[in-house]
Amino acid sequence: MNQPEMLKVQQVRARHLVQGEGEPVVLLHGIGRSLEDWTETVPALAASHRVYTLDLIGFGLSDKPDVPYTLAGLARFVRHYLDAAGETRPVTLIGNSLGGAVAQQFAVMYPQRVRSLVLVNSAGFGQEVTLALRLLAVPRLGEYLMAPSPRNSARVVNSLFHDSRFATPQRREHAQLLAGQPGRDRPYLSVARFLGGWRGVHSGWREALTGRLAALRLPTLVVWGEQDRILPASHLNHARRLYPHARTHLFAQAGHLPQIERAQEFNALVREFLGGPA
């Protein structure tokens, strides 16, 4: 796989990777994460598609400017990114966790620029969320919990997987690298507090977003890892009710990142959804 590069998106340097030719696909990571969460996905999809993956503004190794961090702001940044990358065709957005909520927000803001959606353990379908994210909403406590340490990074990585073998030293080291990025705390806490509070994920933005998106009836695939400890798999049932037109799939023995733990099965499912060979 090619190495990520920096792209100027208006006044922000965004870290991204572009690979393959064909219809465009955009991969969006979760809160506090980076494009490395799609390492197993990119080669499989790039065989038949133009695949864009990026570190969202405020996350990964992209710039972290002092701007408001909201769901609409992140979706707007994705639009500016695509403009900077020269991609004007309707895209398929594949979003994991926060990235799934960003994908849905992008679709309601710019429906003419979206072909379809793949939502992977996506935020937006329920109130329940891991205690670790709820604690970040508490003033001062959230700031204290953001202090980078190898132990905290290891704990985060362990929480993402059902099978501990995927919580490799390399992934823990990368999580520590991300945790130590200057300016990381403000965007992380801003987004976490926009999305939810001590009681869980706020209902206001969820209901407004899913209501608007349901009316568009975009081709949609919603998948979940059955053993997700961040956003429980019961949210998949909510997604089925909200988007009755969507295809759904539950990955057994997988956590919050089924695109890694069930890479072969995930890639085959997405390729078939996209209309290519599985």
TrEMBL record:
SUPFAM superfamilies per the UniProt record, alphabetical: alpha/beta-Hydrolases
Nucleus recorded as keyword: no
Keyword tags: Hydrolase
Parts forming coiled coils: none
InterPro entries: AB_hydrolase_1, AB_hydrolase_fold, Epox_hydrolase-like
AB hydrolase-1 domain mapped to chain residues: 24-262
Keyword hit for Iron-sulfur: no
Protein's name according to its UniProt entry: Alpha/beta fold hydrolase
